[in-house]
Amino acid sequence: MEQKQSKTAIQWLLIGGAIAIGLASAFLSISDNPLKALFTERFPSFDDSGLDKYTPGSQSVCQQVPKLSPKNEKAQQFIRDKVESPKYQEEIIDKLSGIIRIPSESYDELGPIGQDERWDIFYDVEKFIKAKYPTVFSTVKLDHANTHGLILTWEGSVPASKAKPILMLAHQDVVPVLADNVKEWTHPPYEGHFDGELIWGRGATDDKGYLISIIESLDLLIESGFKPKRTVILAFGCDEEISGENCAKPISNLLHDRYGDNGIYLIMDEGSVGIQKEFDQSFAMVSVAEKGYLDVGINVTSTGGHASNPPDHNVIGILSEIVMAIENSPFPGKVTSKNPMFGFLECAAVHAPESSFPKSVRNKLGNVANGISKAQQDLARELDNMRYYFRTSQSVGKINGGVKINAIPETASTLINLRLSVDTSIAQIEEHYENLVEPIARKHRMVFEGFHSSRESSDPRKVSLFGVDALEPAPVSPVDAEAFKILSGTIKHTLKPLGQDNELIVTPYLMPANTDTKCFWALTKNIYRFTPINLVDNLNRAHTTDEFIRADEFVREPLFFASLVLNADDAVEQDTS
Ligand SMILES: *[C@@H]1O[C@H](CO)[C@@H](O)[C@H](O)[C@H]1NC(C)=O
Ligand SMILES: [Zn+2]
User: Fold this and answer.
1) Residue 319: inside a domain, yes or no?
2) Would you report the helix, strand and coil content of the chain in percent, each value rounded to 5?
3) Ligand (nearest to CA of 517)
4) Residue 35 has pLDDT above 60, yes or no
5) Sheet bearing 447-449, strands edge to edge
């Protein structure tokens, strides 16, 4: 299992896919491959050391594709010119300001759509985008999934069975702003204030900037005269910041009914990173997986009684012992080759300046790739500042127990929030907790109920474990798929590295949080979360006060999305020729 990823990198090198690898690199890899093969056969340790593989300039990992320009030069030029024009820039900024002015907040305790009036604000969002994008809405087919989930389908000339549709997601909802916090905002959160440089407001980056960018890209493509062969779908959820049950799920169900398992070519959604500098190198970070999620509940119950006649340990004491045991057994950090962050380290090792990438990290990569457990743990320790990319986190978030000072409490309970690393599973986590808690229950002569017990015991003295919200870690999307190469080539074609860097390196990355894509796994393996701007300067205000987006970066986002659609459309031609 551990070796899968390294095999992928080699396959990438050999196959090269639909896009021709640059001549120079092809020559290099062909000319030094037989030699390497010879060495590997006779001295296996040569390759195992990973020293040559992880040296700057090495071609054997993190292969980059060249810039990919759409064949439709006319459409591309039209869109480029448009995006540079002051009139367009003014208009799209105005559209973002306008949609920010609609406070489409989603709340944890919302009732169903149609019953809870607080959903009605989403009618305003729909009305707004219809008013701003009349051409789009007269071109696409609009479907509603559970009223506020919007699906815009721009039918291609080739049926979906021959050319799978491309799907771009964004969410209409935003994290609520607490009334008490409004005064802490430099500009009111729902004013959409533009100060000439920044557009301020809740949703500016998360996720209304993305929403406007993808719909604008469609508008530009239509205006350019482009007619897609491959169907293009945009879908806008209404509850990304809460459950996804109200919109993301119904949208996914509708698309699944229409296109079936693996019926979609590629899904784009918001990323938690974007273009960013690490180890003195610019990277375009494409999240190819998400951590899992689990809320664990623990109940301890017993018979109560008067406080003058207490047991040595009541339910509060026992629960405390359990919490201590849990905190004293954190999940170990481990860098495995299944983790997209390992792919990122490989990219940094070969593309960052040699002096900027720690030698001690570089030296461990070979052994990590070969599945050597000690190296995997050592490397996680070494990268402690990024620890939660490499481990399952657990955070005891709530504790309840006791009602009265002079009564022995009958129940005590706690809730623990976990974010699962990509190389674990809900079953493994459950087993870990059961192994920790059961001995404590036994010690106190209590009944133990694990996660999947039948809960039949009528004994009031018991310790019960149960799962609340659960989501497995996302499947890791492939980086050797044609769709990923199209995406990479589009990134290189439309986006620039930061500062003085020569090249923007496309790298896999890991999303520590969850997106609407959690509902879309059945539709494609090719799920990529990426925001085509520098998110260090932008997204770090998401979910808090003073959220903003840089106008000069935002106005160019549609060029990226439009080029992606054009490039994905060109791939249809390759399929049928
Ligand atoms: C745990 O305790 C809470 C609060 O007392 C209760 O609502 C819930 O049903 C209990 N769950 C289990 C599985 O015992
Ligand atoms: Zn979001």
Assistant:
1) yes
2) 40, 20, 40
3) 2
4) no
5) 393-401, 411-420, 292-301, 462-471, 447-449
For position 197, which CATH number holds? 3.40.630.10
299 lines ligand 1 (CB under 6 A): yes
Is 111 part of a structural domain of the chain? yes
CB 410 near ligand 1, within 6 Å: no
Q: What is the CATH number of the domain that holds 403?
A: 3.30.70.360
d(CA 61, CA 6): 8
407-408/305-306 β-pairing? antiparallel
In Å, what is the CA distance from 312 to each residue of 253, 500, 574?
Answer: 54, 67, 75
Residue 363: Cβ within 10 Å count: 16
What is residue 577's predicted lDDT score, i.e. its pLDDT? 44
As annotated, the binding site for Zn(2+) includes 171, 206, 241, 269, 543
Domain membership of residue 381 as a residue range: 288-471
Q: Is 263 in the same domain as 322?
A: no
pLDDT in tens, 212-269: 999 999 999 999 999 999 999 999 999 999 989 999 999 999 999 999 999 999 999 9
Distance 244 CA to ligand 2 centre (A): 11
One-letter amino acid at 141 equals K
Any ligand 1 atom below 6 A from CB of 411: yes
299 CA to middle of ligand 1, Å? Answer: 6
For ligand 1, whether the C-beta of 413 sits within 6 Å is yes
32-36, 64-68, 128-132, 440-444: least confidently modelled range: 32-36
Q: Are residues 328 and 457 in the same domain?
A: yes
Instruction: Looking at the CA of 455, name the nearest ligand.
Output: 1
Confidence of residue 297 (pLDDT cuts 50, 70, 90): very high
C-alpha closest to that of 506 among 268, 205, 274: 274
Distance from the alpha carbon of residue 456 to the mean position of ligand 1, in angstroms = 14
Pseudo-torsion of CA 246, 247, 249, 251, nearest 10°?
150
Residue 16 within a domain: no
Ligand nearest to the CA of 299: 1
What is the DSSP annotation of 406-444?
TEE-SEEEEEEEEEE-TT--HHHHHHHHHHHHHHHHHHT
Q: Which of 18-27, 215-224, 431-440, 488-497 has the lowest mean pLDDT?
A: 18-27
Q: Is the CB of 466 under 6 A from ligand 1?
A: yes
- For residue 240, the surrounding DSSP H or E stretch is none
The rounded Å distance from CA 329 to ligand 1 centre is 24
Ligand 1 binding pocket mutation candidate from 298, 299, 415 (most atoms within 8 A of CB): 299
DSSP H helices, 383-516, are: 426-443, 482-494
For residue 249, give the amino acid letter.
K
